[in-house]
Amino acid sequence: MTATFPQASDKHALEHGEVLAPRFDANGLIAAIATDADTGEVLMFAWMNAEALSRTLDTGEAHYFSRSRGELWHKGATSGQIQRIVEARIDCDQDCVWLKVRPQGDGGACHTGARSCFYRLIVNGKLVDRP
Amino acid sequence: MTATFPQASDKHALEHGEVLAPRFDANGLIAAIATDADTGEVLMFAWMNAEALSRTLDTGEAHYFSRSRGELWHKGATSGQIQRIVEARIDCDQDCVWLKVRPQGDGGACHTGARSCFYRLIVNGKLVDRP
Asked: Which of B58, B69, B81, B125 has the greatest number of CB atoms lying within 10 Å of its CB?
């Protein structure tokens, strides 16, 4: 499967049009933010290629592109931490997607076992655990 | 001013240590997500270089790196949309910062005039305004 998206015809179309025209970077990737649809907490930050975005929208479950493994990544396929999409948004210049999700399985999103990847505060230049 | 940060000594230190050791990419940038500290809404996604991150933490106001202008960007310096930092977090592998902010000025964050850059839903493959 090869997913393709159109390019916006101009800046106005990009920022105000109804055409989904994601601007993938030189590596073919777009940024993605997943938040918990119920708590608003930011769960994780990851990347999507066109196929990952397309499958996310088609299936209602978050797919990303793993830069370390160089492959499509259906979040939760092995861990059970499937992310059901409640709402998907895109930003003004269409280079970042915001997914509001309901995490399945044990409810976590982070490979460390934490619920969110953002389990540390920056306080006076040091990191402090604060799940 | 040249801001520098240490590198994590190993994966455990990166993921569980108390040392802030951001992993800047090949362009010297780290991803940054700003959410509204009161509503939880994602306001914007941007990039920071080491100086932007350092100034953000030192001043309590969000600084980014503008890739289009190639320069440090004190958010709100001209628009008045200063972002006061309520809380700063970093993710497991320290390549993304999450800022909870209180937007000053007119309360907006987006150059289009919208409160959040994510003012469009993706619905059945089309974009729909939903501020």
From this structure: B81
Q: Is B1 within the bounds of a domain?
A: no
Q: Tell me the pLDDT tens digit for each residue of A37-53.
A: 999 999 999 999 999 99
ipTM of the complex: 0.96
CATH of residue B82's domain is: 3.10.20.810
Residue A8 falls inside a structural domain: no
User: Looking at residues B22-45, what average pLDDT do you find?
Assistant: 97
Q: How far is A52 from chain B (nearest CA, A)?
A: 14
Q: List, as one string, the DSSP characters of chain B.
A: -----PPPSSHHHHHH-SB------TTS-EEEEEEETTT--EEEEEEE-HHHHHHHHHHSB-EEEETTTTEEEETTTTTS--EEEEEEEE-TTSSEEEEEEEE-TTS---TTS-SSS--EEEETTEEEE--
Whether the per-residue pLDDT at B41 is higher than 90: the answer is yes
Does residue A41 sit within a domain? Answer: yes
Closest alpha carbon within chain A to B30? A45
Give the predicted TM-score (pTM) of the model.
0.97
Structural domain including B125 reads: 24-129
Tell me how close the Cα of A73 comes to any Cα of chain B, in angstroms: 18
What's the domain count of chain B?
1
Which residues of chain A neighbour B87 with C-beta distances below 8 Å?
121
Task: Spell out which chain A residues touch chain B, with contact meaning CB-CB distance below 8 angstroms.
Answer: 15-20, 31, 33, 35, 39-42, 44-45, 57, 87-93, 95-98, 110-112, 114, 117-122, 125-128, 130
